[in-house]
Amino acid sequence: MSIKCKAAITNGKGEFYIGEIQVGEPESDEIRIKIMSAGLCHTDFDSLNWGKKMVIGHEGSGIIEKIGSAVTGFKIGDQVILNWAMPCEHCFQCMEGNQHICENNSPVTGGMYGPNGGHAHSLGTIIDGEAVERSFNLGTIAEYTLVKASAAVINTSAKMSFPAASIISCGIMTGYGSVVNAAKVKPGTSVVVLGTGGVGLSVIQAAKISGAVKIIAVDINPKRLEMALAFGATDTILAEKTDKGLLNAASQVKAMTNDRGADYAFECTAIPDLGAAPLAMVRNAGTAVQVSGIEQEISFDMNLFEWDKVYINPLYGKCRPKVDLPAIVALYDKGLLQLEEMVTNTYPINELQQAFDDMLAGKNAKGVIVFN
């Protein structure tokens, strides 16, 4: 039997409304989830302009309400974290260990619905008699959703709240994985983090867990820098909007790191003009990481690469859902990763516009939509 419920729906032209959808029965390889919380990030705001009518939202946590006939490893009542990058586990990239860029399901290949893709499984969602898609095949800003079983990871924590669980599978994973999986930050090293929003704070926490001894947070917002210190930064630099390429901030970084530069620098601002900035922060043979997913054309001064510097652009922290998400949950349970503290505000679905406004104004580490 299908279920009628509330959801946030975009027309793809920059607008959204809260309306009623009808969520169908799960197909054989799907599960139906009662969404308890949905994290909010800039991608959700961007999705309002993807040119398609759809249910928005791609971070979420909830409870399994119904299971398809071929699904194993789950039961009704399980609490799950929803993951937007669903590996097929048999394509070339998955076999190479690159599950985050699965050739069948990754948004970079067009296999999953995103700004560049189609859809990878049944629509299952009806609005006014019309079948519509769900953002990244999730559509988490809704009271219920249908997902492939491969999109869900069981939350094994007995104490984690649904809002904390909901933010793991995008912002937290992207920051954590960029440090642990992509850059492989070593103990005793120095790290610079450019931009201290939700992703930047996750980078800071992962750098601390990895044993970095100097973690320098750079931002133009002093309140963000206060947050950075609370999440593990050892030093802060209040940057200026007029600092082109953050070269003045880079000079301060060098002064803090024996006039050499940091071992690692992570760009978490999503500002195209700062795409090259982490190169200015690192020492010779250091590693610069572009975390925020800048896709615009940008210019590089090749002098910034001198000498032997490495620049990498990982997707989603090179996530392996069945490995990395349980690891994040375990770190939370051990008190090593602050997730509850990352949720600075929660909102009912009818306050989604306020949640977007607060996010764009930089008021939250993470804002979360909550459902009763």
Low-confidence stretches: 111-121
Number of strands: 19
Give the overall form: globular
- The domain count comes to 2
Q: What is the straight-line distance between the termini?
A: 21 Å
The assigned CATH architecture of the largest domain is: Alpha-Beta Complex
Number of helices: 10
User: What is the residue-averaged pLDDT?
Assistant: 92
Which secondary structure elements does this structure contain, and how are they paired or packed?
Elements: E1 3-10, E2 16-23, E3 30-40, H1 42-46, E4 54-55, E5 60-67, E6 79-82, H2 92-95, E7 125-127, E8 130-131, E9 133-134, E10 144-148, E11 152-154, H3 162-166, H4 168-183, E12 190-194, H5 198-209, E13 214-219, H6 222-230, E14 235-238, H7 247-256, E15 262-267, H8 277-281, E16 282-290, E17 310-312, H9 321-333, E18 343-347, H10 352-360, E19 366-370
Parallel strand pairs: 4-9, 12-13, 12-15, 13-14, 15-16, 16-17, 18-19
Antiparallel strand pairs: 1-2, 1-4, 2-7, 3-5, 3-10, 3-19, 5-6, 6-11, 7-8
Give structural notes.
The protein is of the alpha/beta class. The chain has two domains: 3-167 and 339-370, Quinone Oxidoreductase, Chain A, domain 1 (Alpha-Beta Complex); 175-314, NAD(P)-binding Rossmann-like Domain (Rossmann fold, 3-Layer(aba) Sandwich), CATH 3.40.50. 24% of the residues lie in helices and 27% in strands. It contains ten helices and 19 strands. The strands form three sheets. Strands 3, 5, 6, 10, 11, 18 and 19 form a seven-stranded mixed sheet that branches. The chain has a six-stranded mixed sheet with strand order 8-7-2-1-4-9, with no helix packed on it. A six-stranded parallel sheet has the order 14-13-12-15-16-17, sandwiched between helices. The two termini are 21 Å apart. Mean pLDDT is 92; it is low at 111-121.
